[in-house]
Specification:
The chain is an alpha/beta fold. It is built from 23 helices and 18 strands. The strands form 5 sheets. It has a 7-stranded mixed beta sheet with strand order 6-7-14-11-10-8-9, sandwiched between helices. A 5-stranded parallel beta sheet has the order 2-3-1-4-5, with helices on both faces.
Length: 556
C-alpha cells in the first residue's frame, strides 16, 4: 500500500486544519484546507455561504474542491465536518482509492463545544454559528456526531484527540503514512550493557543480511535458528528470503512450543554451533516467536561467552514484548523462565508482514501484551495517559484484520513504551517490574498444564490483577469493565479452566519476588501502576474467584 494523500475527517473543533499543516510539514507534503479554499474562492465565510446560498450550494462546492485536492499526490487534506457525511463521497470511491488514507479525528462533544466557543469569542462571530448561538451547544454537537458517525467510522483509522498536544497527534499521523509506505520506523534502546536498534516495517525480513553486515562488517558465519512451523511459510529458499544469500549460513530448525525452552533444547544449539566451529565473530539469528527468541538468545549469550545476536520476531507477542529488552531464558519444572540471562540483541528486525503466517488464535493471543502496555502506558517514562488503550478500543476491527498500516504503528508504539522502561531499569530492580502487570497469576495459569497460550493466560491474569485492585479499593468496577471489554473485543479469554491450587504452587516459584515476598503489579485510582507487597489474602482470593472457573471455549 502506497499512500500519497492523507484526508482528515471529523467534526469542527477537532483540529483538522492545524493538523493538516503540521503533518504536511513533517512529510514534506502540501496542506489543503477545504473550508479555507472555498472561502477564498467565493469571497465569503462558510456561515455566510450557508445563510445566503444554502447548504446544497456549499456541499457542491465542497465536493468540487475535494475532487480537485484528491487529484494531487503528496497532500494532507483537512475536510469540513460534513464533507464526508454523504454516500456520494464514498460511493464514488473518492476516499476509498488505495493511495488515499483517511483519518477520523474525534473528541468528546464537551471538548469540541469548549473549543468552538473559545474560537467564536476570539473571532467575535458566535452568533454566526447556529451550533453556538441557540440552545445547548454540547447537546447539538453530540447529536451532530451521532448523525455522522457511521460515515466517520469508514475511515482507515480513528484517533481520539482529547487532551493531546497537536505535535503528538501530528507525529502519529505522519508515522502512520510513512509506515503505510514501507518506510522503517526505528527505536534505539540504550542500555547499560549494549544498545539495541529495533526497526519496524512491512517486508523488512528481506533486509536481515544487509543489517548483519552493517552491524558486523567482519561477520564470519551466521547461525540461523528458525521455528520449524514457520519454515514452510518463509519458503524453501529461506536464506534468500532473509537476504542472507551472500553470507555463510548454517540453519537449525527449532521445534515449536514451550518444551523447546529446556536444558536439552539449549544443549542442542550449543552442540550444533560448537561442533561446527563457531567463533566470536559469528552472529546467531532467531527467527520465530518468543520461544525461539528466548532460547536462541540464551544460547547466543553463552556460546563462547557471547556472540552477535539478532532477533527476527514473527509473532505479535514477540514483536511487542519478548524480542525487546534482552531477557533470555529457558523453563524449569519449578516454573517458567527461571534460568536465563540479560543479553541485548544488537538488532531487532520486526517485519509485520510476518503476522500473516500466524494461526488466528495465536495472533489474537498477542494482543494481551499490547493491552497490558496500554494499561501501564501512563507509568512509563514519557508515556501518555490512555492513548494506546484509546487507539485499541477505537480500531479493534481494523487491527484484527492484520493488513492495516495501523498494525505496524501499534507495534512500534509498544516497542517504544517497553524500550523506555528497559532503559530506565534494564535488570528489573524497580520500574521494569511494571511490565509484569497481569503476569503474577497469569504465569501461574500458563504453567498449570500449558494448555493456554501465553497471551491468553496473561489476559486472564490481567483480569485477576484488576479484580484484586478493585477488592483493595484501588480502582472501581468501571475501570475493570473497560479493560475487560477491550480484552473481549480482541477475542481474548477472561477466565480459565485450571486448578487454582496448581496455579498457586507455580506462583510460589515465580521469579517476581523480593526478599522472599511476592510482588504484585496493580493499578491505582490515578491511572498509574504500583508495585505492591503483602496483599491481604481475601484480595488475592477475590482475583482467583473472578477468573478461575469453567472452560473458556477457545478455538484451536
Amino acid at each position: 500500500m502506497a499512500v500519497s494523500r492523507l484526508v482528515l475527517v471529523g467534526l469542527s473543533g477537532t483540529g483538522k486544519s492545524t493538523l493538516a499543516t503540521e503533518v504536511a510539514a513533517r512529510l514534506g507534503w502540501q496542506a489543503v484546507d477545504l473550508d479555507a479554499d472555498i472561502e477564498r474562492e467565493v469571497g465569503r465565510t462558510i456561515p455566510e455561504i450557508f445563510a445566503q446560498d444554502g447548504e446544497p450550494f456549499f456541499r457542491e462546492a465542497e465536493r468540487a474542491h475535494l475532487l480537485r485536492a484528491l487529484a494531487s499526490d503528496g497532500v494532507v487534506i483537512a475536510t469540513g465536518g460534513g464533507a464526508v457525511a454523504n454516500e456520494a463521497v464514498w460511493a464514488d470511491d473518492l476516499l476509498g482509492e488505495a493511495a488515499t488514507y483517511v483519518a477520523w479525528l474525534d473528541a468528546a462533544p464537551e471538548t469540541i463545544a469548549a473549543r468552538l466557543l473559545a474560537q467564536a469569542d476570539a473571532d467575535g462571530v458566535k452568533a454566526a454559528r447556529p451550533l453556538l448561538s441557540e440552545g445547548d451547544p454540547t447537546a447539538k454537537i453530540r447529536a451532530q456526531r451521532e448523525a455522522r458517525i457511521a460515515f466517520y467510522r469508514r475511515a482507515d483509522v480513528a484517533l481520539g484527540v482529547d487532551g493531546r498536544a497537536i505535535a503528538a497527534i501530528a507525529d502519529d499521523l505522519s508515522e502512520l503514512v510513512r509506515l503505510a509506505n514501507g518506510v522503517p520506523s526505528e527505536v534505539t534502546l540504550t542500555s547499560t550493557s549494549s544498545p539495541s536498534r529495533i526497526q519496524v516495517a512491512d517486508g523488512l525480513r528481506r533486509e536481515v543480511g544487509t543489517v548483519i553486515v552493517q552491524q558486523w562488517p567482519k561477520v564470519r558465519r551466521v547461525w540461523l535458528c528458525v521455528d520449524a512451523n514457520l519454515r514452510q511459510h518463509l519458503g524453501d529458499d529461506l536464506i534468500a528470503t532473509l537476504g542472507l544469500a551472500d553470507l555463510d549460513v548454517r540453519v537449525l530448525e527449532i521445534p515449536s512450543g514451550e518444551t523447546s525452552k529446556s536444558v536439552d533444547g539449549l544443549a542442542r544449539i550449543w552442540d550444533w554451533a560448537l561442533t561446527e566451529g563457531a567463533d566470536r565473530s559469528d552472529v546467531m539469528v532467531a527467527v520465530g516467536g518468543g520461544v525461539v527468541g528466548d532460547l536462541v538468545g540464551f544460547a547466543a549469550a553463552t556460546v563462547l561467552r557471547g556472540i552477535g545476536f539478532v532477533q527476527v520476531p514473527t509473532t505479535l507477542l514477540a514483536m511487542v514484548d519478548s524480542s525487546v529488552g534482552g531477557k533470555t531464558a529457558i523453563n524449569h519444572p519449578a516454573g517458567k523462565n527461571l534460568i536465563g540471562a540479560f543479553y541485548q540483541p544488537a538488532r531487532v528486525i520486526v517485519d509485520t508482514e510476518l503476522l500473516a503466517t500466524l494461526p488466528e488464535r495465536e495472533f489474537r493471543s498477542g494482543w494481551a501484551e499490547v493491552i497490558k502496555h496500554g494499561v501501564i502506558e501512563a507509568s512509563t517514562p514519557g508515556g501518555e495517559d490512555g492513548v494506546l488503550l484509546d487507539v485499541l478500543a477505537r480500531n479493534a476491527d481494523k487491527l484484527l484484520a492484520r493488513t492495516s498500516p495501523l498494525v505496524p504503528w501499534v507495534v512500534r508504539r509498544n516497542i517504544s513504551l517497553k524500550a523506555a522502561v528497559v532503559e530506565s531499569d534494564e535488570r528489573e530492580a524497580n520500574l521494569r517490574a511494571i511490565l509484569n502487570f497481569g503476569h503474577t497469576i497469569g504465569h501461574g495459569i500458563e504453567a498449570a498444564g500449558y494448555t493456554m497460550f501465553h497471551g491468553e493466560a496473561i489476559a486472564v491474569g490481567t483480569v485477576a490483577a484488576l479484580r484484586i485492585a478493585e477488592a483493595m479499593g484501588r480502582i472501581g468496577d468501571a475501570d475493570v469493565a473497560r479493560i475487560v471489554a477491550l480484552l473481549e473485543a480482541f477475542a481474548l479469554p477472561t477466565t480459565a479452566a485450571v486448578d487454582a491450587d496448581e496455579v498457586r504452587r507455580h506462583m510460589a516459584h515465580d521469579k517476581k519476588k523480593a526478599s522472599g515476598k511476592q510482588l504484585w503489579v496493580l493499578p491505582n485510582a490515578e491511572g498509574r501502576i504500583d508495585i505492591v507487597r503483602d496483599l491481604p489474602e481475601e484480595a488475592i482470593q477475590a482475583g482467583f474467584d473472578a477468573v478461575i472457573r469453567g472452560a473458556v471455549g477457545l478455538a484451536v
